[in-house]
Design goal:
The chain is an alpha+beta fold and about 400 residues long. It has a single domain, classed as HIT-like (HIT family, subunit A, 2-Layer Sandwich). About 25% of the residues lie in helices and about 25% in strands. It is built from 6 helices and 17 strands. The strands form 3 sheets. A 12-stranded mixed β-sheet has the order 10-11-12-14-13-8-9-7-5-2-1-17, sandwiched between helices. A 3-stranded antiparallel β-sheet has the order 4-3-6, with no helix packed on it. A two-stranded antiparallel sheet has the order 15-16. A hairpin with a 4-residue loop joins strand 3 (about 45-50) and strand 4 (about 55-60). The structure holds zinc ion (ZN) (2 copies). The site of one zinc ion (ZN) has 6 residues, from loops.
Length: about 400
């Protein structure tokens, strides 16, 4: 799947639901509007509370209990799917789309935080849903090369917009696939959260990067990339722009990280067109591998795109390398690793598989899963074709 150098433009149509939520339709669109009479979901109790003992902010979001649930199995029938064309979110056909979550934890204009005995703040940020394809069944592994290139271009487009909001310090593109990680809808989709503060895991990484820089005057992420490149026994697939490897110290038995090799590739919008095509290839390989790891069906996973958070000067953290971390909960076809007391309360993970053994198993499946007949991944440039007047938020 070589870099083709041929550019495809992808139109973006900026629409609004009647309840004010943004809807971005990518590709062909005939001008139909989403329903203008649907009432919004009331979120009166939504706010953040500060845990004084950990320094962490916790979102209090009781309205999430109203979320729809459809059984996320292959037997799931498309007509009940709210994400299929003609459903309540997209009442018309689409090629790919992004909309603001109907049940958000974070909002551009959140309700005021209640005054309580402890510290509170408004739940400011964004929660968006990314629809990869109008087809109800499938995954990142089964998208066509064009669809996959479009999804990456859409992640770049949305990340760019969300990073431009000065308050945003952290933007997380992610996907929960499968019932085992709490996905409530099976239609191929992911999500994006933007936060106005640094969550705990980001703070831990930033401290590690800063400490390494202070001591060695070099980039810790570059060192990790080199360590992974040198570790043939943890490598899942070769890729010119990314390492595709089981990390040295994985929390999860079949964890895989896809990490940008180039220093300076810190966020999705930093990627060159060649790197985007290589990212498509890497993600497809990993998900194909998970799809074939066990005979009785695809492995559930959490996929998180780690982009450089904004540091104290609002600049992207300099020594951060973009990565896509895949965190599948299985340790065997029928056994889930339960994140129990020690992992949850202490953050001390116990991995009962040898990372090199998992990597050998994944690499063998990955070799067999390589698709020689994949069409080349096109370059995709998003072009906004319409703007709503009167916007009071940055898209
Ligand atoms: Zn669907
Ligand atoms: Zn680096």
């Amino acid at each position: 799947m070589p870099y083709t150098g041929c550019m495809e433009t992808l139109a973006r149509h900026d629409l609004r639901h009647g309840d004010g939520r943004w809807l971005f339709v990518y590709g062909e669109h005939d001008g139909q509007q989403p329903p203008q009479d649907a009432p919004g979901v009331a979120l009166p109790a939504l706010h953040l509370r500060h845990d004084a003992l950990t320094g962490q902010w916790v979102a209090i979001s009781p309205a999430r209990n109203q979320r729809p649930q459809s059984r996320p199995s292959l037997a799931d029938t498309a007509p009940s799917c709210p994400l299929c064309p003609g459903g309540p979110e997209l009442p018309f056909g689409y090629e790919a789309a992004v909309f603001e979550n109907r049940f958000p934890t974070l909002l551009a204009a959140p309700p005021e935080a209640p005054a309580l005995a402890g510290a509170t703040r408004a739940s400011h940020g964004r929660c968006e849903v990314v629809l990869y394809t109008p087809t109800h069944e499938g995954s990142l592994a089964t998208l066509t090369s064009q669809e996959l290139a479009r999804v990456i271009a859409i992640w770049v487009d949305r990340s760019q917009a969300l990073w431009e909001v000065p308050e945003h310090r952290y933007v997380l593109v992610f996907e929960n696939r499968g019932e085992d990680v709490g996905a409530t809808l099976s239609h191929p989709h992911g999500q994006i959260y933007a936060l106005d503060h640094l969550p705990g895991m980001a703070r831990i990484r930033l401290v590690a990067l800063a400490a390494h820089r202070t001591v060695t005057e070099t980039c810790l992420s570059c060192a990790v990339v080199q360590q992974d490149l040198d570790a043939a026994d943890r490598t899942i697939a070769e890729n010119p722009s990314f390492t595709v490897a089981v990390p040295f110290a994985p929390n999860w038995p079949f964890e895989v990280h896809v990490r940008a090799r180039r220093h300076g590739a810190r966020r999705l919008p930093d990627l060159t067109l060649e790197e985007r095509a290589d990212l498509a290839r890497a993600l497809r390989t990993v998900v194909r591998t998970y799809d074939r790891l066990y005979p009785d069906g695809p492995v559930a996973y959490m996929m998180v795109c780690q982009q450089a958070p904004a540091d104290d000067t609002a600049e992207p953290s300099a020594d951060w390398h973009l990565s896509f971390d895949f965190l599948p909960p299985n340790r065997s076809p029928d056994k889930l690793k339960v994140r129990a007391s020690v992992e949850t309360a202490a953050g001390f993970f116990i991995n009962d598989t040898l990372p090199e053994t998992s990597a050998a198993q994944l690499a063998a499946v990955s070799m067999a899963a390589q698709g020689a007949s994949d069409a080349p991944v096109p370059d995709v440039e998003v072009i906004p074709v319409s703007h709503m007047a009167g916007s009071d938020i940055t898209r």
